[in-house]
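[job 0412] stage=fold_complex status=start
inputs:
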Amino acid sequence: MDQQTKVKILDPKTANQIAAGEVVERPLSVVKELVENAIDSGAGRIDVKIPGSGIHKIQVSDNGCGMIPEDMLQAVKRHATSKIRTLEDLDMLSTLGFRGEALPAIAAVSRMTITSRVPGNISAYTLKIEGGQAEIPQEIGAPDGTTVVVEDLFYNTPARKKFLKSDTWEMGLIHELMEKMAISHPEIAFSLTQGSKITLKTNGSNQLAQVVLSLYGKDLLSNMIKVEWLQDLIINGLVSLPDLNRSTRQHYDFFINGRWVKSKELAAIVDEAYHTLLPHKRYPLVMLFLQIHPSQIDVNVHPTKMEVKFKDIKTVKGTLLSAISAALRKKEVAAPRLGNLGGGGQNRPVNTPGSDAYHIEEKSARNSAANSSLTIKEPLIGDLLQSLYQNSTSPAYDVRHDQNAVLSPDAGLIGSDAEIALDEKTAKDEQIRFSSLQVLGQLGGSYIAVYNEEGLYLIDQHAAHERILYEKLKKRVLAENVKSHMLAMPLTLNLTQREKLCLVDMILDLHKLGFIVEEFGNNTVLLRGVPDWVQNSAADDLLLSLIEDMLETGQTNPYLREEELFMNACKKAVKANMRLQESDIINLLAELDHCQNPLTCPHGRPLIIKITLSEIRRRFLRGGI
Amino acid sequence: MKFNCQKEDLLYAVQAVVRAVSTKNTLPILEGIMICAKANKLSFRATDLEMAMECLVDADVLEEGTVVISGRYFYDLVKHLPFGNVYFEKTGEQLTIEYDQSHISVHCLDPDEFPALPQMEEDISGEIPIPIFRRIVRQSSIAAATDEVRPIFSGIYTQFGDNQITMVTTDTHRLALCKGGWKGKAAQTYILPTHTMQEIARLAINEEESVIVTLSKNQVFFAIGNIIVVTRVINGQYPDYKQVLPTENLFVSQCVVNRQRLIEALERAALLPRDAIRGKSNVVKLAWQKDLLTLSADVPDVGRIKEEIPISFQGKEIVSNYNAKYLLDALRVMDSENVVMRLTGDNTPGIIVPDAAYETLADAPYTYLVLPMRVRV
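[job 0412] stage=fold_complex status=done
writing structure:
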């Protein structure tokens, strides 16, 4: 029986490289882990430099708490961390890192140099690690904080190196990551230097709006509104007005306790908050920060910590919905985009004063769109800070720049000194009072023209009536008792194990919707009762799609009867080319006042457009006001 | 092809087969009616591939031949023709129709494209007296599913037994079971398209006659006088309906109620709009107690109704909500003066049967199974 043993313990080097593979997939992971470490070190400034043309060297410096040489040696060992001590600490996790894997993982697949000085100590130390092998720390002169330089990533794992995409692609990922990092920590000044160019810079002023302005420019910022919610969970951040939307959910950014996460569950909640406000297949931009007690979430789902699990998604959902809806309800009617008013790129919506959106002032007549460019000139930040003080008493919106823009259509697009006035005025409930509008009449049998002292409004009569009917119907549907038809011939459904478990999990939610389901052997369930409104025999398909939604988003689909509501509201509403008496119009306006979302039709199309007096003046080229 | 025919005969034949003319089909030829003139007989045929109909009438055939003509147009034309003799002549692709001093010339379709009708190869299996046929089709078709999500439920499950035909339908919400006598031997069971069966019942007018049935493997032939209808069979396994019928020991209460009185009360109670979207959802609460059946509907912000009907009642008092439509469907197709409602409890299945003499429940000519609705407040 002289057989050779087949099972052997891997040598530490191989084991470390395999473990590294999980954490360090690409240069992006290096930046992510190092920046997170820097954030956890309490730094107020984090600089990422990637010199040269490709990605040969990544340098991350911070001004945080630093490490003494003994800690440096310890830190590059696996499962060494200063962030938690025991498993119980995991439940109370408040730092970004905790697994104690990042540094050793990176060190295992690169040549790494750590230089660190604990503030107040006389000297700094530097430590070189190559392929996981640490040398002895050397004394050196360096500023406070830690600088980690990673070179020749994957030099010893050529297979991994082969799977990297082009340098430009990898740089794009890193840039995106830095954007999210900057957004998630407005209190830290971030910079990203690629080659010889500073491609991203924030000032650490602890104002999210400042960060967004630096990153995306004022066009975008002026269409975002603040979300602030302090009940149950603390939620704050920015969400876009319905006017600003995208064709994908790429701009759904969620930060939970400062960590940027992807979450289908949260995305579904945002979808629901914007339901009927946006056209089909359009999505808002959101940057939402949720403060949740660490024991209520589990981030240890995946080594990259991009996913998060909620213990109580229902509370999160309720709160987040209320927070976003409250913010959206406070907004004012945005004026229409009136074609090409001025020079290139001037078609931006004009926000009226008093709204909760951010208002941006421009001293110069030049440029309005250039801020979205990634190159931000150094003086900008200084100016910004200065202007913050100067403008504290100035009017929130200044039309002069727009007038100038019209007069000088050739205005260049570069060189901005945009200023930001963080309009923190307490949100006056500025929702438009429809019943106070003066009726001018009906246009083309389809639109209602009304006005008030701020300007002229056009209302799409069909869309308006549709919205009124939709909300009334919805209210009634929600008030109805749930009725289930019991089935004479129960339907059997064959599910996969995962679907079955999910169904068992949500059996009570289904009950509330009117589905009466029973377990029946292995992966089979019996459908014994169906909601009374479901068309004959299509009930099991509906149930299956509900389960799919549930698997995807963790909740039951809230729009079950929505199609029907839309259809019904649409059919009953007054049509275009239908003569309305003045009394009809007055009644319609009064009804709009009772709507929760009186600005869009249920399909998300605008229902009212506003042309402000200042816009009318501008079009008549009367700038003097 | 040349023939003379009386307008009345034409109308009779066209009216019979026009229902089999396809209205939505990708094959244009199926929109036509085929007329075959042979040996002083005209045969009119139409098919939508689900069913095929053929009707034979007498005519004065001068020259034999076949023509296919647009069914809808031909039906409308025949309806408008004056009484008397009509002469037809086909030359090339034109059909000339002459009546009085007038003539019409229409383009016709290629008879070679018209699908051949299935041939009856088997012997006649048996016959069903027309009154019985009409009753069981009428009483069963109400519970068949009207959509095609599950094709088997859109059909009538038909068992040809020894001297007895059983028809079962269910749309999963309720179930109808009808029985009727026939002169024939036990054979296999079929799922027959409900629509076709209703068409046959419509053609079977003469109460003195019988529907003659020929069972074949993939189709069933029904002959009524000079009309033959061939129907396709729906393939599939019909679930065991006997399992869902409550057994005798489960019933806890039963009442006898006047059918017409109950229909009228249900109709009034179902008028209150209840469902926000559809206007009404027909939920009616029925409460059985000694000598009294109370129907009520109560819709917040709309109104309420309460009706009391005297009944003869035995057993436990029961309260259940029902979809009024499901009760009405059955009550309207029944013909006894009173009906018997037998219940198994609150919120559990119940049945409606005619109040007539029969030995056991299994012998009832009609059994309608209805389930209550569960309303969560």
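[job 0412] summary: Chain A is about 35% helix and 20% strand.
[job 0412] exit 0
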